[in-house]
Design brief:
This protein has 136 residues and is an alpha+beta fold. It has a single domain, classed as Thiol Ester Dehydrase, Chain A, CATH 3.10.129.10. Helix content is 24%, strand content 44%. It contains 3 helices and 6 strands; from the N terminus they run H-H-E-E-H-E-E-E-E. Strands 1-2-4-5-6-3 form a 6-stranded antiparallel sheet. The longest helix is centred in the middle third of the chain and has 18 residues. The protein is globular and about 45 Å long.
């Protein structure tokens, strides 16, 4: 694992990201990938993947992807809006997310996140708008 990915894994500590079991697996220019278990931490009462957990995975990937594209000594990235279409239910295993930058401007970014099953079936399609703000 490269040093940046190891550093990103450190950002997870003592957060909801760690609690949900979200792991970052890959990143590159304009994208970042991760995975999340479908288990007792991410189930809704009927034993299915909770839509909110999918949104948490999507926001995690988009937010970290956005942060990787700015100078964090001067800027911060904060979510403005997120939407999600839940396409397929999942009972167990893992889901995989890939966040791709659609727009990376000076003051806003837009990221699309596709969450799939282990077999590659679409579970959730999300889009997040991120504000790029000056650090105080």
């Amino acid at each position: 694992m490269d040093s940046t990915l190891e550093k990103l894994q450190e950002w997870r500590k003592n957060t909801m990201v760690e609690h949900l079991g979200i792991e970052l697996t890959e990143y590159g220019e304009g994208y970042i990938c991760g995975k999340m278990p479908v288990d007792h931490r991410t189930h809704q009462p009927m034993g299915l993947l909770h839509g909110g957990a999918s949104v948490a995975l999507a926001e995690t990937l988009a937010s970290i992807g956005a942060a990787l594209s700015v100078d964090l000594s001067k800027k911060a990235c904060v979510g403005l809006e997120i939407n999600a279409n839940h396409i397929r239910s999942v009972h167990e295993g893992w889901v995989y997310g890939k966040a791709t930058a659609l727009h990376t401007g000076r003051s806003t970014q837009v990221w699309e996140v596709r969450i799939t099953t282990e077999a590659g079936e679409l579970v959730c399609l999300s889009r997040m708008t991120v504000a790029v703000i000056d650090k105080k």
